[in-house]
């Protein structure tokens, strides 16, 4: 049952990205281009998408906090970690640089994998290589004596 | 434009619903970089038997994303994917997105839709950082 939930959740999440047009990199870049505010051509759609997504997600968290376990077994995530460290901020800065460069982040990349032709597949390939490099670097960092 | 904003709200609501379903149904965070990264890690490191079911859930969530265009197009949805970046920029961007999101423990979905919605301090700091850097990169891109 958990496997069906995972597949359906991915499907619904992807449909949301398609309906909101966030699977389209040009739309994401039109939001990030704040200089367009002065020109009157700025596209605020991403803010509506993020607002809608966070509102529904917040509701789900409120329900989760009242439950002792997920509906189909396993355990709920614990309280969020508190420490804001260099890995969090450095990683987020690198991620933001790549996001701004192409207008593509992981969810839209996978959702539009079959729609975006060779350029999207090139991005996805590079993203997976970036994750493989992280896997090796993380192992070295963890193995190194503190 | 208002039609776009409405589609944004509806689509956003579905994104939140997908994340909420994964959380309440399976107790898991719908962070796409975490999901894709755990699939990659499982392939590189091998999978002990006890990790196999979590790994297959990640794989199935990713499969749901990949197949989402089929019902969307079947229901008459239209989408035009426009990618302005050239091949070198796409390679650099992909490497930065993949490596950066794993190092920073999340991307727009994990830190934004999931962590930000429960006001996690780490997620809010991550969101502020990647939004600011992405906006700065687009701004500099205008100048060059």
Describe the structure.
The complex is a heterodimer of chains A (146) and B (144). Chain A is mainly α and 146 residues long. Helices cover 70% and strands 0% of the residues of chain A. Chain A contains 7 helices and no strands. The model of chain A has no long low-confidence stretch (mean pLDDT 95). With 144 residues, chain B is mainly alpha-helical. Chain B is built from 7 helices and no strands. The longest helix of chain B is centred in the first third of the chain and has 25 residues, at 2-26. In chain B, 56% of the residues are buried. Chains A and B meet through helix 1, helix 2, helix 4, helix 5 and helix 6 of A and helix 1, helix 2, helix 3, helix 4 and helix 5 of B.
Looking at how many chains there are and whether they match, the oligomeric state comes to: heterodimer
- Beta-strand percentage range of chain B: under 5%
Query: How many angstroms separate the termini of chain B?
Result: 29 Å
Bin the strand percentage of chain A.
under 5%
> What structural class should be given to the helix and strand makeup of chain A?
mainly alpha
Mass-distribution shape of chain B: globular
* Helical run tally of chain A: 7
Work out the helix count of chain B: 7
The main sheet of chain B comes to: none
For the largest interface, the chains and their residue counts are:
A-B, 113 and 108 residues
Largest sheet of chain A: none
Low-confidence residue ranges of chain B: none
Helix proportion range of chain B: over 70%
Helix-residue proportion of chain A: 55-70%
How many strands of chain B? 0
